[in-house]
Amino acid sequence: MIGMTQPESLAELLNGRRSAIDATLPAAGFVIGWLVTGRSIWAGAAIAVACALAVCWWRLRHGDKPRAVLIGLLGVCVAATIALVTGNAEDFFLLQLLSNAASALVWVISIVLRWPLLGVIVGGVLGQKTRWRRDPALLRSYSLASWVWVPQYLIRLAVFVPLYEAGQVVALGAARIVLTWPLIAACLAVSWWVIRRTLPPGHPGLRHPVTDAVAER
């Protein structure tokens, strides 16, 4: 039983370190390939896709769901295609800019609609479907903790947009690496702290939503 006395952190549940690796390796591969081949977008794109394929193989070997793995691969392929079509290396990062802007908006909307994304994600990982929403205390904690995730997207946009407009490909790649794992780690740690601080004493924890059916027993 996972409760507040036996905490299982969000980092453990959501594999935060693995997600950071998935996000940074293809971008690093693109920049390295682009540099060492005399700024060839084709070479950068090829190495980025190769890195994404390697990540897919590694994740599938470790039992990750094929759909989630293929979505990551598709994102890299789309980013590489955009750069190849436009002929601008910095456009490899255009999809990331758009996704960060969209993500910030979606997280805010999810909180306003009382479907906080952190609850949706964790509930999905734990196989709870929508049971967590029937626990008022857990719904409130997920809503408060979801606000922690919004600033990371705004921070990335504040850094990425000027670099993108200036065509700073190497700096974009470096920023992608620097602003991925540290921000994800910070969000996981702070949002977990918020959840633990806002759940009432005696609450059984994320794995055990206190629904009406449970409360009536």
Euclidean distance between termini CA atoms: 18 Å
Overall radius of gyration: 19 Å
Series of secondary-structure elements, N-terminal to C-terminal: HHHHHHHHHHH
Specify the number of helices: 11
Q: β content, as a range?
A: under 5%
Low-confidence stretches are 1-6, 213-217
Largest sheet data: none
Overall spatial form? elongated
Report the strand count: 0
> Could you estimate the helical fraction of the residues in percent?
over 70%
Structural class determined from secondary elements? mainly alpha
Oligomerization category of the chains in this entry: single chain
Average pLDDT over all residues: 89
Count of spatially separate domains? 1
Outline the structure in words.
- The two termini are 18 Å apart.
- The N terminus and C terminus are likely disordered.
- It is elongated and about 60 Å long.
- It has eleven helices and no strands.
- With 217 residues, the protein is mostly helical.
- Helix content is 71%, strand content 0%.
- Pfam families: DUF3159.
- It comes from Paractinoplanes durhamensis.
Give the helices and strands, then pairings.
Elements lengths: L9 H5 L1 H21 L4 H21 L4 H21 L7 H19 L4 H9 L10 H11 L3 H16 L3 H10 L2 H18 L13 H4 L2
Quick overview:
This protein has eleven helices and no strands. The protein is an all-alpha fold.
Q: What brief labels describe this structure?
A:
217 residues, mainly alpha, 11 helices, 0% strand, elongated, disordered N terminus, disordered C terminus
